[in-house]
Amino acid sequence: MKNLAMTLSAVFMLASVNVYAGSDFSSLDADGNGAISQAEAQKNSALAEQFKKLDTNADGELSKEEFAGFEG
User: Taking the model in full, what pTM does it have?
Assistant: First the structure.
C-alpha cells in the first residue's frame, strides 16, 4: 500500500509539472503569438540564460517544442 501511494504521488507530481510548464509558456508568451521572444523570456532569468541553447532553429523565438527543453 505504501508503494502504491508513493507511485501515485510521483505520477501526480509529474502531471502537475507538465501542466505548470504549459501554463508557463502561455504566461511568458505575452503577445499570444505562439512563441516566446527573447524579450518575453527576460521575465524568467533561468529561461533567459538558456534561451540561445533552447532556440534550436536560431529564429529568435521559442516554440512550444523548444520550450519543452527548458529546465527551470
Answer: 0.68
Cell of 18: 507538465
Q: List the beta bridge partners of residue 37.
A: 61
Does residue 37 fall inside a structural domain? yes
| pLDDT one-digit tens code per residue, 10-44 | 444 444 444 344 569 999 999 999 999 999 999 99
- CA-based end-to-end distance of the chain: 33
Q: Dihedral sign for Cα 13, 14, 15, 20, please.
A: positive
Return the sign of the alpha-carbon dihedral for residues 28, 30, 31, 32.
positive
Range of the domain at 35: 2-67
Residue 72 located in a structural domain: no
